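The protein record filed here:
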Amino acid sequence: MSNTKVAVVTGAARGIGAATARRLAADGNAVAVVDLDESSCAATVSAIEDAGGRALAVGADVGDGAQVETAIARVAEELGAPVILINNAGIIRDNLIFKMTEADWDAVMAVHLRGAFLMTKACQAFMTKEKFGRIVNLSSSSAQGNRGQANYSAAKAGLQGFTKTLAIELGKFGVTANAVAPGFIQTEMTAATAERMGISMADFIAHSAAQIPVARVGQPDDIAATISFLCSEEAGYVSGQVIYVAGGPLD
């Protein structure tokens, strides 16, 4: 297992983050499972350990610089130098622009953009020293605009610019940076959206699948598989890209 690397996945207690943490562990990496509440990471950690992998639960608010520094120092001490980073932590505070509050805007920016910045800044110090790194930021098809998501759309579009700049700055150190932009993925977050819209999850899925070329909605494992490739040694010549994993082309 000399080839084992240490990965950090934020927002890894559930959904896409949990699926990604499990997949990266299955790929042979030790995984730091990061979420706001450390106890909420237990299920993901158990799933990894039960499958023979190595994982560490870490509680941290990714938007808080001091907590991020403490978390990454702990990961480095207990697992090793973090050279794979998946910035997946995210929240939604959906509302139409005339009803969106400053708090709604700031909360989304703090987790998605500030969180990705702080985590990347902390981890890149190890990546550049090791001369190897893989950064994957979770964008979204909402980056192209989505009703009721001015804050989320702006944050997810911002992550694409952030990703491209990281690729330019860090490439010479053997570090790649890419973004994965999911389309409709069946998670607790999409269930919350259905509830906000006042429709059942089953109807939401059926309606969405009817508009997707592959005729189904996505699952967290669909995203984890793409992230797995981008984190591999083989993906060393792929950097600064935004890959839409959405079951078809987007306008």
